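debug: dumping io for the single-chain case to check the tokenizer round-trip. Nothing else runs in this session.
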Amino acid sequence: MLERESVIFDEIFAIPQWAFINRIIKAAKWVNQQSLKTCLIQVNSFGCGPDSFVVDEAKEIVNRGGHYYLMIRVDEFSNAGAIKLRLLSLKETLRNTLGIKKRVFINNARFRKQDRNRKILVPHFSDIYSPFIPPVFKNAGVEVEVLPPANHKSVEYGLKYVNNEVCYPATIVIGDLIKALSEGKYNLDEVAVALTQTGGQCRASNYVPLLKKALISAGFKDVPVVSIGFDGDVINDQPGFDLEWKKMIRIAFLSGLYADALARLYYANVAREIEKGSSREILIRYINASKPLIENSNYDGLMVLLSNAVESFNRLKTVSCMVPKIGLVGEIFLKYNDFSNNNIVDWLTSQGIEVIAPQIADFFMQFFVNVKVNTKSFIEKPSFKQLLAAILEVLANEYIIRFEKILANYKFYTPTHDIFSKAYKASRILDLVNQFGEGWLIPAEICSYAENNIKNVISLQPFGCIANHVVSKGVEKVLKRYYPDLNLLFLDFDSCTSEVNIYNRLYFMVKNSRESIGLPNKVVFSNQVYQSRLNQ
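debug: decoded output
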């Protein structure tokens, strides 16, 4: 047994938040302290989530000390002979070599106080939500630039510098940042890079450590890394980056509500528009018009602008026939980022499908539910945090009600459920202490769709995302016990996902959704869909 005091968690990138990770790092550190040639053998199974980053960390620690590392993968397809051969090869290597040359630990540059004037680069998230990021941060005096949408070159960089078994969003966003730095557009002395960090029992909490390792491997160790999150969630050495959330939290929340509202207006209208591109033009117009209001924290102006947006969408000519609806749930990046999900939202709308996407505000509103659940379940002790959450909850709901009243004037308005109503629905499916990944929010959203008569739902997940597989695929049987007519489609994505396979499966979802409202079973792959709806 390794004594707790004998191992110091320094000179590592991984966040030591799990007992499993801590044990492996302790073992690697112990090997690193040995005077004789030693090898750390790590046995893992396919799909073990934390291994996607701790394997590289353990190998790096051991190799820095001049020792050896060997990973043995054991699963139902393992060949015992091949495993024995690798162990025999290791034995001969240890017997006949002098060891690996020792190396010092190399870390990234810190974000210091004198770095506050650096422009911060962040990866593209969504065509609808990303434009609001720079004006929100301008309230805090921080210059943020959102990179253009990712492409296949971003994935190539990600696969080169990130463990290939980590979840797909990490491959994209880290690869995209390295691509931006590699193309020579930016002065490296004037920029920093940033990712969000929500913490918790999810591999996403280690995206920042993965980014640091990737930057060092790519030759950008002097570019500081910033972790964006609330104070209690940020685990990163960034003394010069201290966001004043009091100044920006209200406008950030309202910007999210405004973006959610535009998304609802757009998705409902684009599936019914007669003049192709008219809905997109209005969407972009009202995104751009909101930026100066957000920069100046003009809350009332944002409300007026949303009212104008509703009127503009109401004036567009649309078809009068019913359109099928399909709900969307899943991992937060995949369900909003078009590149990562092969642009399936645009494809669905081109088929005359109204896509019902979750509101990003709910991702943050679930905090109020989680605080109460964790206190009631004795996971957290009562503290000032609960009182603060109660106050913020009241203020947040006031704004949500105001936005909903404005949206109610839209001709295709679909009401939504408040977060506690969704939580109650989810509590029938699984315990609300399941807060890792998207947590109980996925079954909550599916239940809300079903009760709004949206019976066809697509769940988008990164391949190997254990958390979302548990709270998405894992609850299908229970969901169908309450909603027997549910038609669920689970799509997993990684860098090798076949577009043909994705669209073949979507074809049957569209077919089912059209038949459910009595429309002909016809899926088209061009703009003929608009004319076909007019002729119905």
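debug: round-trip ok. The longest strand covers residues 456-462.
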